[in-house]
Amino acid sequence: MLILFMNIGIIGTGSIGATLAQKLMAAGHQVKVTNTRQPAELAQKAKELGASPATLQDVVQDVDLVFVSIPLHVIPKLPAGLLRDLPTEVVVADTSNYYPQRDGKIDALENGQVESVWVAEQLGRPIIKAYNNILSQTLVAGSTAPGTSGRIAISVAGDDAQAKQRVAELISATGFDVVDAGSLADSWRQQPGTPAYCTELTAPELTQALAAAVPGKGPQVRDQIMAQLTQRNMPPTRDDLLVLNRSLGMGV
Ligand SMILES: NC(=O)c1ccc[n+]([C@@H]2O[C@H](COP(=O)([O-])OP(=O)(O)OC[C@H]3O[C@@H](n4cnc5c(N)ncnc54)[C@H](OP(=O)(O)O)[C@@H]3O)[C@@H](O)[C@H]2O)c1
Q1: Which amino acids bring their CB within 6 angstroms of ligand 1?
Q2: How many helices (H) and strands (E) are present in the chain, helices listed first?
Q3: pLDDT tens readout for residues 153-177
Q4: Which amino acid residue places its CA nearest to atom 45 of ligand 1?
């Protein structure tokens, strides 16, 4: 298979953005990153990750693909036009999830708008939704080689088949199988509280889980899970989160 190495910009160097930077660099891509820190601290973080530091304006320039990996409530505060004005061939991928406990209540999402459809509106351009339904701990430690039995899958949703394919190639290069979850409007099936959300499934299992999602149920399950997590004294482990997501989200 011909591998096309990409120039990638990542906005956010938290649990997901930092791990993506490391894995994408390891897979041979060129990665630059940004966060909210002063230049010296950003440079130190980028060095730790093996990526290049960039300002917010520069991280999206001269790249093939941008990951937006920041808390959802920050997305409308990004500078107007930052992503909207990029060439149409630049793929923008969104890893975000809506947690009203963190993001505050957003009326459109409370009224059922699909999260990534709202994100695309805020950014003013089409996006691909990916890496939102994998725990950061799974992203760090759950990679395996293609063909490995039980390989964990990540679903990808979006309206542009070519853009989706580029993101799918990155998912595979970072150690996971890929399931096409359909259009951006279909991506509610991989939002928090659904059977496909952070439940570490193989590709056939994830396909079934996406199909099993019940409209309107995700937010209710998400809030039940958050309520259980806030009662704990210790931060949850990957296993704790998996057990909760599977027992409440999948009903098993
Ligand atoms: N954690 C998970 O398991 C997980 C799994 C799947 C998806 N997600 C979703 O993916 C997104 C990122 O999650 P995360 O856990 O990586 O978040 P996180 O650990 O809280 O990190 C957020 C990152 O965003 C940066 N940031 C915030 N505002 C910014 C701005 N205006 N410009 C540039 N950078 C900005 C922060 O910068 P500083 O470092 O300077 O503070 C930080 O690096 C969220 O929407 C989350 O819901 C999370």
Answers
A1: 11-17, 34-37, 56, 69-72, 74, 95-97, 132, 134-136
A2: 11, 8
A3: 999 999 999 999 999 999 999 999 9
A4: 96
